[in-house]
Amino acid sequence: VQLVESGGGAVQAGGSLRPSCVASFDIDSTPCMGWFRQAPGKDREGVATISTRDSETNYADSVKGRFTISRDTAKNTMYLQMNSLKPEDTVIYYCATGQVYQGACPLAPVLFDYWGQGTQVTVS
After folding, report:
1. SS (H, E, C) 10-67
2. Rounded distance between C-alpha atoms, residue 54 and residue 31, angstroms
3. Among 2, 4, 62, 79, which is most buried by a count of CB atoms within 10 Å?
4. Torsion of CA 29, 45, 9, 88, to 10 degrees
5. What is the Cα–Cα distance from 78 to 21, expressed in whole angstroms?
6. What are the CB-based long-range contacts (under 8 Å, 24+) for 65-68?
7. Cα–Cα distance measured from residue 69 to residue 36, given in angstroms and rounded to the nearest whole number
8. In this predicted model, what pLDDT tens digit does every residue of 2-61 receive, in sequence order?
9. Helix, strand or coil for residue 104?
10. What is the sign of the dihedral through the CA atoms of 25, 35, 117 and 79?
């Protein structure tokens, strides 16, 4: 199992980025996929998740209306469209696969078991 993120980078405030996460397996074989982020010295937090069963999405309040999670099953790839970026979005972003909890894909890192190496996003 391998997840590889790319597409991070440096942008000015108000700009956009679209990181991607390519899986080495059929992403329909895992119930949930998600994006998480972690600042130095802080706990990893959920950004957005998506169900591979019905494409139901879940977003952190801090990114609602600005970020959009999506997936392309033909490419085994997940994306995070990030618009209206703010300096406080500057952290490392990770993709992961996880399990359903109470019928949904939660923003809880503890329920995600395979992780990518991360991609840095810097907003100035």
Report:
1. EECCCCCECCEEEECCCHHHCCEEEEEEECCCCCCEEEEEEECCCCCEEECCCCCCCE
2. 10
3. 79
4. 150
5. 5
6. 67/35
7. 11
8. 999 999 999 999 999 999 999 999 998 999 999 999 999 999 999 999 998 889 999 999
9. strand
10. positive
